[in-house]
Amino acid sequence: MFLQISKKTIYAVRKSLIFSAICAIGAFLTRLCKNSAIVTRFLSQSGRTAFSSSVLTRGVNGAGSLAAPVFKSSAVLRLIFGSIALQPWVLVCAVLFLAPLIPTMVLLAAAAVTTAVTLAHGIYFGEGYRPTAVDKWLLFVMLAYFSGVMVSSDRQASLFPALLYAAFCFFAFTVKAAINSKAHARAAVFALVLSATAVSLHGLAQRYFGWFLPTVGTGAWLDKDMFEGVYLRVYATLENPNVLAEYLDLIIPFTFAIAVTEKSKLIKLVSLGCLAAQLMALLYSYSRGGWIATIAAIAVFLIALDRRFVVLLVLGGIGGLALMPAQYINRLMSVGNITDRSTLYRLYIWLGTIDMVKDGHWQIGIGVGETAFASVYRLYDYGGIVTPHSHNLFLQFITESGVLGLVSILGAFFSGIRQGMRAFLSGGRTRLYSLAAACGILGFFVQSMTDFGFYNYRVTFVFWCVLGLAAAMGSAHAADGEKPDPREKVSAI
Question: SS3 letters for the chain?
């Protein structure tokens, strides 16, 4: 009886004018995108082709060729590279797993060792440098950081954060070099997802058992007058609930992709459990920007798979709003409400930062780091608000490094999304992981409009790793020229 009613309901929905209108709109937008010169240009390989023939690319490959005979004559290196534990992709996966769980300086040391091993491995085996369109933007970002040191009023204070940011940005090259096959890409994705699950379980332990909480300060980040039902915002290992949300923005699309694309029932079941833990941790972070960013990322993921998911998203959104508890609805609907102290706090900071940028600091910036920012921002603050950053990633870059910084970070975002989308459209068994990388970067971009995710160095590191992974999968697909796997259907869900 239930099955008959369900079929009748589905038939009625499909015959409805609303369903037909939504499908027609989806079809129109799809044709519009396919015929768009902008989209065609966005997904072209011109940037990669130009960079492949650059002096820098030829110089790196030439230096590797000269050093190769010396490296191959070393018995120590032969012994090292014979060990699976010291294969670059294994080390990268280990670092990806540990990134949100270990202190920043330990992470820096692990990244340095992994980069050194990857470089030596590439020279020893004669693996040439594989350029992508992302590379030049990574170099521009690092240049922007060093430029921010030069213009800083306190160069000594700006030097350490600039070096750390640049080192973590450089690790994207390491990821791109080490992840050079579909199996390596899959292992890297699994490492990211398992790590995010561990972080999420840590957050859920804070929420349900009160574990890992400091003795004071658990009421921080709360407007108790406006949100009475919210007594705790979890932050897990990342020290701030908004930072936790930005981290999960990057990883949740990968977890979703595993649940969709993997054929093993056990892996599907485990991935669904991981996805549930991550979504619950995101929910309990009470980060409105994180919620919106993840919704946007998953929506793009589903629509890229099949435009008919537009109907499911619309119906799911309506149903979700109808069934969601009031405390979450109130929290989500408070976006833009300046009676909320956190919204007003951000608004004042943005106004002060924009005044600072307009007053001539947009050209070369004021310097990298909290010290440089605070030394100038205090002259423009609204309401006496003291803040270590601008609560907007793009405002922060133009403030610290001027136009060079803003153009560089925007280029890095869009080139990473493009690499992931190109790999997805080119097909192959890791195509959904490529799409997940693009959607994760997109989600991070959305939340970066309301927060400065790079304030946490470990989340900064994970962002550059995801961008490097998108570039690696895009490069691998371009080299392999794979066709889509006909068995890889959405019905695999």
Answer: CHHHHHHHHHHHHHHCHHHHHHHHHHHHHHHHHHCCHHHHHHCCCHHHHHHHCCHHHHHHHHHHHHHHHHHHCCHHHHHHHCCHHHCHHHHHHHHHHHCCCCCHHHHHHHHHHHHHHHHHHHHHCCCCCCCCCHHHHHHHHHHHHHHHHHCCCCHHHHHHHHHHHHHHHHHHHHHHHHCCCHHHHHHHHHHHHHHHHHHHHHHHHHHHHCCCCCCCCCCCCCCCCCCCCCCCCCCCCCCCHHHHHHHHHHHHHHHHHHHHHCCCHHHHHHHHHHHHHHHHHHHHHCCHHHHHHHHHHHHHHHHHHCCCHHHHHHHHHHHHHHHCCHHHHHHHHCCCCCCCHHHHHHHHHHHHHHHHHHHHHCCCCCCCCHHHHHHHHCCCCCCCCCCCCCCCHHHHHHHHHHHHHHHHHHHHHHHHHHHHHHHHHHCCCCHHHHHHHHHHHHHHHHHHCCCCHHHCHHHHHHHHHHHHHHHHHHHHHHHHCCCCCCCCCHHHC
